Amino acid sequence: MDLIAESEALFQDESVVLAALEVEKVGHGADATGAQLLKSLGAESYRAGPKPRVLCFSVKRSLSDREFAAAISLCRRDPRQPGAPLELRKTYPLKCLHDLRLHCAAAPGSGSFSEQQAPGAVAQLLRSGSGHDVDGGGGGGGARPLPSVEVWLAHHHSAPDHRGAYFFPGQRQAMLFMSLAVQLLRRQDELLPTLSGVSLERLDAWWVANKEAAAAALAPFAARVITPGTLQACGRRGELGVLVSAKEEADLEELLGLYALGLGEPEEFAARLQDEHAALEAANVYGLLESGPLVEGVLTQLRRTQGVLDDLHESLKVFDLKLRHMRDDIAAIEASNNSLERQSRNNAALLAALDRLLADIDIDAATARRLESGPLDAQHLPAAAAAAWALHDKRRRLAAGGGPGAVSPLVAGMRAVKDARARLDGLAQRFVSRAAQHVATAIGNAAGEAMTEGAAAGDRGARLSPPDRGRLREAVARCQPLVAALAALDPSALARLQMHYAQNVNSLLRRELRACSSELRRAVQAEAAGGEGAGLGLRERSVLNAARRAARPSGGSIGSASDISEDPGSASASPRAAPRTRGGPGAGAPAAARLAAYLTGASPGLPLHAAWQQLLGSFLPFLLEEADYAAAAFFMRKGDDPRAATQQQQQQQVQQQQVQQRRRPPPPHGGGELTPAGHEAVGALLGSLDPDFAVLVDLTSKSNQVMAVPMLALCRAWLARLRGRPTAAPLATALSACERRLAGHWAAFVAAQTAAVDAFDARSKIGLQAGIKNVHLLPPINQFVSMAQELEGLMADAAAEVEAGRGAAAARRRGSGEREERRQEGEDGGGGGGDGGGGAEEEAAADAAAAGAAHSVRSDVDAAYSSWAGRLFACLERQAALDAKYADRLRLENYGHYADGLAPLTESAPALRESVQQADALREGALAQYIQDQLEYGKMWKLLEFGQRLEKLLQVVTPAEVAFQKDCSASDARALMRSAMEGADKKLEAAAARVRKHLGATALGDAVWQRLKEDLLARYERLEQLLELCYPNTPLRPSPEELRELFKLAGSG
User: Fold this and answer.
1) DSSP strand E in 665-813: where?
2) Looking at the DSSP assignment, which residues form a beta bridge with residue 71?
């Protein structure tokens, strides 16, 4: 009640306070735009600071009627003055309440509410401002989330006038606030606000359950306002029956007090006042007369004091003048002393700087002798490198603008400094010339030894695998400190060393790559000479080569007519032939197994695509490693620090005292951009290698064109791996040339095959008179099926090789990462962590791009499939049109062979799916026509035609009227059955013999005979039903059961 009374003092009009609640305001809501901005700027403390506020509900008499109007007011205390009174900030009509949102969250900051209060009633809670619930819920010992109510006040729904979030001491205080607002709005018949976090039904239920406790916590007049007629409202000084404000009540009491004086008669009261006024004036005059002497004494003392003060003022003016002169003298003395002290300090600093400059502008004699003529062998090389770095530091310090620690431009212009710098430059030139000659000699000697070792290697394994660069890299590692010093002293000397190293290593690489490519070419030629994996030919071969070609799984061109099959048994088994083994003998074997067999002599040679895989898989990583090593060893990348590289190498040498590292691993990633000199050196290092890669590519120009497909896939995969690596630009150029050649060879092969299919004519090989009687499988279709199986096998092998390369690369990355971790654990302090993780991600992305690039060959092959399929079907129809008698049999065999042979490949080659489905449909049509021809040949087709005629007649007439139709009498039916089925056993035996003669003892012949049997029996049984329906007294002889037995006898014969 104290808070209500204090709040009521703020309202000087007719308003009466119903309730006052202490809350904490958060300036910005969590979802406000300003809050998000403050949070992004780090102003979380702004939001976290709560501000104590008081929310008041008040009512006043309405001007329009006898009802009242409710309002909500926002009050606060001055935070700078403890115990300050409340201040009224804003007042809004309660009908402007637009939105109420209840949240339960932790209070931002420390807050002013306590959660450790004893349970109590709502009135005591609101009087003390504690944090307890309305209906006496207990308080816990620990912090718990405080409810917050977000209040929106707006005269118009689209532009809120006020929006704020308030934290209440407890959940029930928040419920009291929201319930009271709803009850007041209902009392005024106003629109209720939008509720969020709590439903209206829950607020009503809470108000009904806690009405008595809530009424005790509110002002006395609140009960009359909220529930008129149910509770009697009591005023502060008695019963109030009407709505009266505090001001009106005070005015009324004052007016009543005036009437309670007992004035009596007005004349008597006026006379009394006149007497009292005269008495007061007499008393005042008497008081003034008595105080006269005292006033005179006071005035005398004031005049004496004024004279003393005037004398004191004159003395102070004289003293101030003397002090001013004294201050001027002291300031002059201090200025003179400061000037002398500054001059002394400057002289001392100048002498010290000159002493240091004279001591630092030249190097000591021992260092100069070591640079001039000191030995550069392995024992003295660290000392020579240290002397070179000392010379570099000295030159940098004496250069104007040399960076931190360098002399100023004014000092650099002194004659002594210029002379010293000229002496140091001359010494640096002499040392650079001598050191560069030493490094070039060491590199040349190591390269010569490596070339001698390579020439001495005579076995296949040594020629097919990259050589060891241990000695050459050891020589470069020994010279690494000297190279780093040269890079700092003279970048042009470093560029010459880069080019010298590139030229020496390039001669080694060309010699080794030429030996490998020559050996692989001999292996491919040996494989072709042995008849194994020779690939698909492109031109027509003579009949003399037919036997040898038939022994190979991939012999013959698509358009070759020399392989025309005259044996009915050569047809593919139907309905589905077993898929061919892809790739020929050994084509599915792993590349490592093929290479091992060749190295041990178990295999005479290697397939062309396996040789290409060996060349790329072994030498491309080796060449890329050589380029990366050269770029790292000779500082070819932008931003390389020679001094940091020297310190890192010294640490590695300390770690490798007991373990000799034969081959240094490549850098963990592709590295940065190369310098212009680095680009030139890498181009010289990897230049002139194109002819050695093109040796195997040229083998696909006139033969082995099919091998261009897996070779093209591997080439594109490696191009994708090399893309984005600066050191691999020359290799990417060489592989791009190989890719263009392979694509040209494949395009020429596709064009040649297309022309061969278009020009194919079977009569040119079997004679013009024989027709196609003895032709079974057309060579274009037979060879296309073989070639498609071969191509899919080769492409699967290429994809497997690419995936194997990805697995091997991942294993290498894991191994190198483990080695890097072990190396870092061995370093002092655990520092120097590399960026191998980033390199692993880049290599994984390159492997994924390589797989996608290898898969891009599929589009070229699918385009060739689509082009060939239509031409093959046109060629078949063209050959079938030469002889209508055997056309259906020719279509049946060739379409069946095409569909059965290529059906297993439709999953890996979607371009074949449509042509296989078309071949299946055409085969079914040819099969139906072929069966009809056989039945007509055995004179049984007329009986089946008679059954079809009966079917059509029954659609327009009744069964009893069928016998009266033309050529449908009972005698006609009996004569037709007698002529068609007479000697049925011999006719069936002749039909079986004819099928075996045309198709041979193959699965296709068995399938055709089974189909003929099923169709004939089905129609025969239907004919029996029709005869029973139309000719009840005319039985069918032989019966269907007897005909089935005759089929068994004919099939067994």
Assistant:
1) none
2) 58, 93
Contacts of residue 750, defined as CB under 8 A and 6 or more positions apart, other chains included, come to: 864, 867, 868
Neighbours of 77 (CB within 10 A): 16
**Which two tokens mark 414?**
């002194």
Question: Which residue in 854, 786, 799, 794 sits closest to 586, CA to CA?
Answer: 794
Mind giving me the DSSP string for 332-376? HHHHHHHHHHHHHHHHHHHHHHHHHHHHHSS--HHHHHHHHH---
Question: How is residue 483 written in tokens?
Answer: 């190279």
Pairing of strands 97-105, 86-93: unpaired
The identity of residue 697, as a single letter, is V
pLDDT at 96 over 80: yes
Which pLDDT band, with edges at 50, 70 and 90, does 416 fall under?
confident
User: Is-contact 1027 970, C-beta < 8 A?
Assistant: no
Residue 95 pLDDT exceeds 90: no
Cα separation, 1012 vs 1014, in Å, equals 6
Please give the structure tokens belonging to residue 59. 């009512």
Distance (Å, rounded) from C-alpha 59 to C-alpha 635? 86
Q: pLDDT per residue over 632-678, tens digit each?
A: 888 888 877 776 655 555 455 434 433 443 444 444 445 578 888 88
Burial 628-654 (b: 16+ CB within 10 A, else e): bbbbbbbbbbeebebeebbeeeeeeee
Strand-pairing partners, residue 159, are 156
Residue whose structure tokens are 């607002």: 181
Q: Which of 651-660, 950-959, 1007-1016 has the highest mean pLDDT?
A: 950-959
3-state secondary structure of 53: strand
Taking alpha carbons only, the member of 502, 493, 268 closest to residue 392 is 493
Angle CA 81–87–91, to nearest 5: 155
Cis check: omega of the bond before 666, within 30 degrees of 0: no
Relative to beta strand 97-105, strand 194-196 is parallel
Q: Give the C-alpha separation, 136 to 875, whole Å.
A: 99
Q: Can you give the pTM of this predicted structure?
A: 0.56
77, β-bridge pairs: 86
Q: What is the pLDDT of residue 928?
A: 78
Structure tokens belonging to residue 345: 């300090």
Q: Looking at residue 339, what is its pLDDT? A: 93
Angle subtended by helix axes 608-633 and 491-529, to nearest 10? 170
Least confident of 316-320, 390-394, 821-825, 953-957: 821-825
Distance CA 995, CA 1009 (A): 7
**Nearest partner of 164 among 76, 233, 227, judged by Cα:** 76
Phi, psi of 500 (to 5 degrees): -65, -45
pLDDT at 229: 43
pLDDT of the residue at 546: 32
**Residue 350, number of CB atoms within 10 A of its CB:** 10
What tens digit of pLDDT does each residue of 378-397 get? Answer: 778 888 888 888 888 888 88
Average pLDDT over residues 432-454: 87
Residue 156 pLDDT more than 70? no
3-state DSSP assignment of residue 147: strand
The residue behind tokens 């057309």 is: 778
CB 841 within 8 A of CB 715: no
Residue 643 belongs to what H/E stretch?
Answer: helix 642-655
How is residue 693 written in tokens?
Answer: 């890669």
Given a contact cutoff of 8 angstroms between Cβ atoms, the answer to whether 217 and 226 are in contact is no
Q: How many CB atoms lie within 10 A of CB 684?
A: 18
> In one letter, which amino acid is 46?
Y
Q: Is 506 helix (H, G, I), strand (E, B) or coil?
A: helix
Other C-beta atoms within 10 Å of 869: how many? 21
* Cα–Cα distance, 248 to 382 (Å, whole number): 105
Q: How many CB atoms lie within 10 A of CB 733?
A: 15
